[in-house]
């Protein structure tokens, strides 16, 4: 299976590269003297007050997202994951990923339960686990660049703004269900005590990109023994829910908080590109190096999935996505 060279260094590299591009191409922007010389019909003057208000609103969204201690507490249905092998006629083995649904003629071959964490609160053993898994999954793809990458990833791993979802193997499939009722009501979304070892994690952050609040996936790493069982897809679906904060009291939809999920993927990592683009329906962002400057030599693309019109207009080619038009 292809490995994806996410995301740590690539994210830093992207931000540095993007910063220079924006500075160099701020033609017509508020900081560009030529902006003032444009005829009024060619521009919409955005008042300083409007800019400040928007910035304040975005900062508040990021602050609120960061303040939430445990995003899983409002998503009890996502606290565990079951993968079963379905045997319609006991001859063929067709795999389906299911969530908390047991079907006749199937057997569970893997269950996981999830917990959340913050970069500055990781225990020594969890830090070691993350470092080891990154090394196992990423040393090969990074090759001679790995020693430098590893140092950067170690720093990013423990940053205060780093948010995590951890996946633990669940030996007792029923353990997860018990945690979604009384445990969750008491605010504990982590698996019960008999949970098994860690099998993977997502490292994500709430950041501002193109002046919009977005969720940026820094790492998605699973141990090889649990890959291909639907857990990666399940975790990305959870990440998208965390970004949107769509699940709330009695299923009434609150407003979106983050306007998009962004992530970085190596061009050479065709498996990960397939996973994200074909299976998870991500698209290459208009802010990706190849879209901003076709002659660029960057080895990665920025992929995105947007959740509102403004983000769609900025990060994708769609001005208005039909999904936002209630069609
Ligand atoms: C890439 C990764 C996160 C995918 O998670 P996963 O649990 O293995 O993938 P899933 O089982 O959820 O697969 C979902 C779909 O994507 C497809 N897919 C997943 N990985 C794929 C790959 N490398 N090549 C082709 N297709 C792939 C699956 O076939 C599946 O398709 P289906 O829904 O039609 O059956 C995981 O394999 C992994 O952690 N790899 C090592 C670390 C890494 O490379 N991380 C990069 C991601 S940031």
Automatic annotation (TrEMBL):
Cellular component, GO annotation: cytoplasm; nucleus
CDD domains linked: NAT_SF (cd04301)
InterPro entries: Acyl_CoA_acyltransferase (IPR016181), GNAT_dom (IPR000182), NAA40 (IPR039949)
Compartments, as annotated in UniProt: Cytoplasm; Nucleus
Assigned EC number: 2.3.1.257
Catalytic activity: N-terminal L-seryl-[histone H2A] + acetyl-CoA = N-terminal N(alpha)-acetyl-L-seryl-[histone H2A] + CoA + H(+); N-terminal L-seryl-[histone H4] + acetyl-CoA = N-terminal N(alpha)-acetyl-L-seryl-[histone H4] + CoA + H(+)
Keyword Acyltransferase found: yes
Top EC category: transferase
Keywords annotated in UniProt: Acyltransferase, Cytoplasm, Nucleus, Transferase
GO molecular function: histone H2A acetyltransferase activity; histone H4 acetyltransferase activity; protein N-terminal-serine acetyltransferase activity
Highest rank taxon of the organism: Eukaryota
SUPFAM superfamilies: Acyl-CoA N-acyltransferases (Nat) (SSF55729)
Limits of the N-acetyltransferase domain: 194-276
PANTHER family hit by this protein: N-ALPHA-ACETYLTRANSFERASE 40 (PTHR20531)
Family that this chain belongs to: Belongs to the acetyltransferase family. NAA40 subfamily.
UniProt protein name: N-alpha-acetyltransferase 40
Species of origin: Ficus carica (Common fig)
């Amino acid at each position: 299976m292809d490995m994806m060279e996410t995301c740590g260094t690539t994210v830093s590299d992207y931000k540095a590269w993007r910063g220079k591009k924006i500075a160099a191409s701020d033609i017509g922007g508020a900081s560009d003297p030529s902006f003032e010389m444009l005829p009024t019909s060619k521009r919409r003057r955005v008042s300083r007050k409007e800019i400040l208000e928007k910035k304040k609103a975005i900062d508040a969204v990021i602050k609120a997202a960061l303040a939430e201690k445990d995003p899983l507490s409002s998503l009890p249905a996502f606290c565990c994951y079951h993968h079963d092998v379905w045997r319609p006629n006991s001859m063929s083995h067709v795999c389906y990923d299911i969530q908390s649904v047991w079907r006749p003629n199937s057997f569970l071959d893997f269950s996981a339960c999830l917990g959340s964490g913050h970069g500055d609160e990781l225990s020594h053993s969890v830090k070691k686990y993350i470092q080891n898994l990154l090394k196992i999954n990423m040393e090969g793809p990074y090759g001679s660049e790995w020693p430098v990458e590893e140092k950067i990833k170690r720093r990013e791993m423990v940053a205060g703004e780093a948010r995590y979802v951890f996946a633990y193997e669940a030996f007792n499939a029923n353990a997860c269900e018990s945690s979604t009722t009384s445990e969750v009501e008491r605010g504990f979304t982590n698996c019960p005590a008999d949970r098994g070892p860690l099998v993977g994690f997502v490292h994500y952050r709430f950041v501002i990109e193109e002046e919009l609040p977005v969720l940026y996936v820094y790492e998605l790493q699973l141990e090889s023994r649990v890959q291909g069982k639907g857990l990666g897809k399940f975790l990305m679906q959870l990440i998208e829910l965390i970004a949107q904060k769509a699940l709330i009291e009695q299923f009434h939809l609150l407003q979106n908080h983050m306007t998009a999920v962004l992530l970085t993927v190596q061009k050479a990592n065709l498996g990960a590109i397939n996973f994200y683009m074909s299976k998870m329906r991500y698209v290459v962002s208009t802010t990706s190096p190849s879209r901003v400057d076709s002659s660029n030599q960057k080895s990665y693309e920025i992929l995105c999935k947007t959740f509102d019109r403004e983000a769609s207009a900025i990060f994708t080619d769609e001005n208005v996505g039909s999904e936002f038009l209630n069609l």
